[in-house]
Amino acid sequence: EITEFMDVVGQGATNTIISRSTASANSNDGVLQMGNQTSLVGVSIKKTGAGNYSTGIYVFAAIVKLDRIAVDVTGATTTNYGVKVGNSAGSQVSIYDSDIKVHGTTAMGIGVYFDLQSGPGLEIKRSTIKAECAGCNTIYGVYSRSKTNLTDVTIEATDTAGGSSNDRGIYISNADTSTVERCRITSSGVGIQQPIVGGDMRIFSSRISGASYNTAGTTSCYNTRNALTDVPLAADCSDSAPFTSGTGLELDNGQ
């Protein structure tokens, strides 16, 4: 555990590696658990081992910075989490220049999960997030219930067994304005989703593959193209074909 007001600096992600191979029955049982006003720099986190959950980093309080880290998580039978942020009031998590990967054949895989609907929110810059599996039910690159800002981020959510309509590159469930700028988002299902009334996802100068799927929120695209065909997307982010089949903007009644 990295306790309050502690900074941990490694010798680079290729040199400083923290790993764990034991099973976990609790998704909050990360290889590292981080408290308020902490940071982790230049470290690799690896998690393997059979169990219900496999979590690389669990953030349980307020302000945390992850910088130049690598996270590789696999082995769970229920959910693999790369970085999981708990429901702590005022949480603000910043991820810079990092690589996060979850993979396996589990029921669900989430690269970055932010479980909080208020507070400053989630910021990711200059990073790569990959969530992949072979035949699992659902995968997310980024799943956030808070305001989220992504800049220069590559996100992949891929079912290597043939694709799933439940897969999401980015899922932001928050009644606020989130931004995506100069990002590349590819998904075997849905590229982007904003399902909350009043929620607004604004996407600038990015590349997206995977349909846009909204139940109540709004997505707006500016100078954004299909990641596979380089065709410009409509203002509502429609016409972004997924890897497998289906095109355009899908709407449902929220039920």
Question: Can you put this structure into words, describing what you see?
Answer:
The protein has strands spanning 7-9, 17-20, 32-34, 38-41, 44-47, 51-59, 63-67, 70-73, 76-85, 92-96, 99-104, 108-114, 121-133, 138-144, 148-159, 168-172, 177-181, 184-193, 200-204, 207-214, 218-222, 225-226, 249-251. With 255 residues, the protein is an all-beta fold. It has a 23-stranded parallel β-sheet that branches. 47% of the residues are buried. Mean pLDDT is 86; it is low at 243-255.
What characteristics describe this protein?
0% helix; disordered C terminus; 255 residues; 23-stranded parallel beta sheet; mainly beta
Counted beta strands: 23
What structural class do helix, strand and pairing data support? Answer: mainly beta
Spans of at least 5 consecutive residues whose pLDDT stays below 50 are 243-255
Instruction: Report on the biggest sheet.
Output: 23 strands, parallel
Order of helices and strands: EEEEEEEEEEEEEEEEEEEEEEE
Percent of residues in helices:
under 10%
How would you state the average pLDDT, rounded? 86
End-to-end separation in angstroms reads 40 Å
Radius of gyration: 17 Å
Instruction: Indicate the overall shape.
Output: globular
Strand content: over 45%
Individual helix count: 0
List the topology elements.
Layout: E1 7-9, E2 17-20, E3 32-34, E4 38-41, E5 44-47, E6 51-59, E7 63-67, E8 70-73, E9 76-85, E10 92-96, E11 99-104, E12 108-114, E13 121-133, E14 138-144, E15 148-159, E16 168-172, E17 177-181, E18 184-193, E19 200-204, E20 207-214, E21 218-222, E22 225-226, E23 249-251
Parallel strand pairs: 1-4, 2-5, 3-6, 4-7, 5-8, 6-9, 7-10, 8-11, 9-12, 10-13, 11-13, 12-14, 13-15, 14-16, 15-17, 15-18, 16-18, 17-19, 18-20, 19-21, 20-22, 20-23
